[in-house]
Amino acid sequence: MLRQAIVICAATCGLASCVEPVPPMRTFFDTLDDGADIEVTMKFIQNALNSIGSFEYSEHEGWFLGDKEADPSEHKGEQYVENVVADPLTCQVQYRTQRTFDGKTEVAGEQLRQIDLKQALKVVAYSQKEQLEGINQVAGPGQLRVDFSPPIFVLKVRFESPPYHSFLLFDKELADEIARAMNHAISLCRRL
Question: What is the DSSP string of 91-158?
């Protein structure tokens, strides 16, 4: 029996490591509604953030004055998230991430990053497209249109002041569920 489990793990995850699959959202959040404890919540956060892995995306942006597009541009981005550890005893989430945009590193991956959920204010999930277009609407005449392929959603952990932590995801539902779990963890951690 154990040998079969090892073979299945090696076949599905490779021999290097086997990240536990994210529990079905419905099951986890039924538990959350019933008052999931900090251990269950942090385990979900750890598994869900580790499931992000690495991905690439493309961005097309252009300013429109009426029907005419001015200065269209194409960009490429990459992100990876790895080694996420969510510790229920300290209410800390540690991880490594790297984000590049058009080949330039925006967030370096060598550094271990740490989120202290006792200090966090709130976690929000939003569409990157809507965020950029909303900010630039106020910038002046014309309309900025941004398209991401595939669509990008941002999970942002907010504090009183920077640094903030953010993760890019393709899946809006997963971004919303992680935000909900992290906000639940923030509430639990403040009571510890």
Answer: TEEEEEEEEEETTEEEE-SSSPEEEETTT--EEEEEEHHHHHHHHHHTTSSSEEEEEEES--EEEEEE
